[in-house]
Amino acid sequence: MIILGLTGSIGCGKSSLSNILKDNNINIIDADLISRKIFEDKKLLALVFEHFGDSIKNKDGSLNRKALGNIVFNDDNKLVELNNLTHPKIKEKVLKEIEKVKLYNKDIVVIDAPLLIEGGYLEIVDKVVVITCNEDIQIKRIQQRDNCSKEEALSRISSQMSQKDKVKYADYVLDNSGDLKELKEKTHEFLLYMKENWCG
């Protein structure tokens, strides 16, 4: 079974590509989804509160994600601190999910992770696919999706590894500067390429 790592910077359309792959009966392990559920772990949540203070706590004791996001997106050191707390747990769950997919004798499983490279997943995956797009389009997409200013969009982009640096790790680069129809066509091309070159 090929373990494929899918990554890309914010606003490049990684989720759209993931959904198209799902429609092609490919199993997706969504690290983002796992990372959102990770805070159901009470011990981890207590650690995060201890680390970042009560300003990220809702009245009912749950996590205020927006408040936490505002802290970590504006301070690289805080982002590193959060990742150090959460990444080992997320990775553990991802590995469990891979084992589950293996039981079904599938040819391919995709780990969809924004921090695939930075989070230490390269040692788990066989191939890396990076989705990219033109930076102006990327900014517009983030502004529309998150209803934020250009400055906020740029701040989110700069808090991540650059597209140029991600591409250095790629076995396949998919440019998503066009519309959804074009992305579907490019995904189809990629699937053919993968079958011919990687699924020997």
If you had to describe this structure to a student in words, what would you say it looks like?
With 200 residues, this protein is α/β, with parallel strands linked by helices. The chain is built from nine helices and five strands. The protein has helices at residues 14-23, 31-37, 42-52, 65-73, 76-102, 135-146, 150-158, 163-167, 180-197; strands spanning 2-8, 27-30, 108-112, 127-132, 172-175. The chain has a five-stranded parallel sheet, with helices on both faces. Helix 1 packs across helix 9 (180-197) and helix 6 (135-146) packs across helix 7 (150-158). The chain is globular.
Structural features:
200 residues; alpha/beta; 5 strands
Write the layout of secondary structure elements.
Elements: E1 2-8, H1 14-23, E2 27-30, H2 31-37, H3 42-52, H4 65-73, H5 76-102, E3 108-112, E4 127-132, H6 135-146, H7 150-158, H8 163-167, E5 172-175, H9 180-197
Helix pairs in contact: 1-9, 6-7
